[in-house]
Amino acid sequence: MDQDIREQVRARYALAAVQGTGDAGCCGGSDGCCDGTDVVVDERFGAGLYGAEDAAAVPAEALAASLGCGNPLVVAELREGERVLDLGSGGGIDVLLSARRVGESGFAYGVDMTDEMLELARANAERAGATNVEFRKGTIEDLPLDDATVDVVVSNCVVNLSTDKPAVLAEAFRVLVPGGRVGISDVVAEDHLTPAQRAERGSYVGCIAGALSRTEYLEGLAAAGFVDAVVEPTHAVADGMHGAIVRARKPVAAG
Ligand SMILES: C[S@@+](CC[C@H](N)C(=O)[O-])C[C@H]1O[C@@H](n2cnc3c(N)ncnc32)[C@H](O)[C@@H]1O
Predict the structure, then answer these.
(1) What are phi and psi of 191, to 5 degrees?
(2) Which of 119, 158, 184 to mutate to test the pocket of ligand 1 (most atoms within 8 A of CB)?
(3) Cα distance between residue 159 and residue 166, in whole Å
């Protein structure tokens, strides 16, 4: 069952990568969104959520491929020399923006399970002339990175697509150095919405049905070992559901 959902997600985003445009609006799109029959363009998802400065800093193709629900770098507060990991890096926009912020002494990794997205991201990195980036194939539930190798984990509208969110949060915790932090954009439901009510508001592959509630997110982060967690809604994406910024920290004392 979970394997079926993951395959639907992979197929949906493979198609989005080949179409090469965030206008296909997979996040937020209806079930026909990526077959070219139902093109969704709106202010809830994608390129419009980046400010002019960030939008101008990446190749047009990377901006157009944006399928996120926010700009996680706004909260990640990246510094020169830091190592960053983007969970579900898609066409690479947040990896490229991270790479600029951390500079040549830093490094930005992207992990994605979809070959077509990895190909698009690598092409966008080449267009950008970025040398301090690497896109790795893998799942966010079983990250292809060693323990304690990154300072910051970012992600943009991907955790909601996972069928094993505790594993995603545990993996983010594992690869962070002690004192490391997460800055995630994601869709989050108000606490009163049941899973069935979330599913009434949009599909799983459309980034709606699989969204955690605010309390579920906070509890999940705490269970993984994170501290100082905050979930802040930024904009409405459906009735009772929001684009949100999620922040948390791995304790310095954590091994
Ligand atoms: C909604 S798109 C977001 C892409 C990118 N973060 C952005 O903001 O444009 C979701 C991406 O996550 C990837 N993805 C979804 N579930 C995944 C998983 N379990 N493991 C790895 N990648 C996943 C998809 O292949 C796709 O590229």
Answers:
(1) -60, -30
(2) 158
(3) 10
Q: Return the residue whose CA atom lies nearest to atom 21 of ligand 1.
A: 139
Sites in the chain below the pLDDT cut of 50: 22-25, 31-41
Q: What pLDDT is attached to residue 255? A: 64
- The rounded distance, in Å, linking the Cα atoms of 223 and 205 is 26
**Nearest alpha carbon to residue 80 among 47, 62, 106:** 106
Per-residue confidence (pLDDT) for residue 254, from 0 to 100: 76
Cα separation, 69 vs 175, in Å, equals 24
As a whole number of angstroms, the distance between CA 249 and CA 235 comes to 24
Q: What are 1's two structure tokens?
A: 């069952």
Q: Quote the strand ranges of the chain, DSSP E.
A: 83-87, 107-112, 133-137, 150-156, 176-189, 212-213, 227-238, 241-249
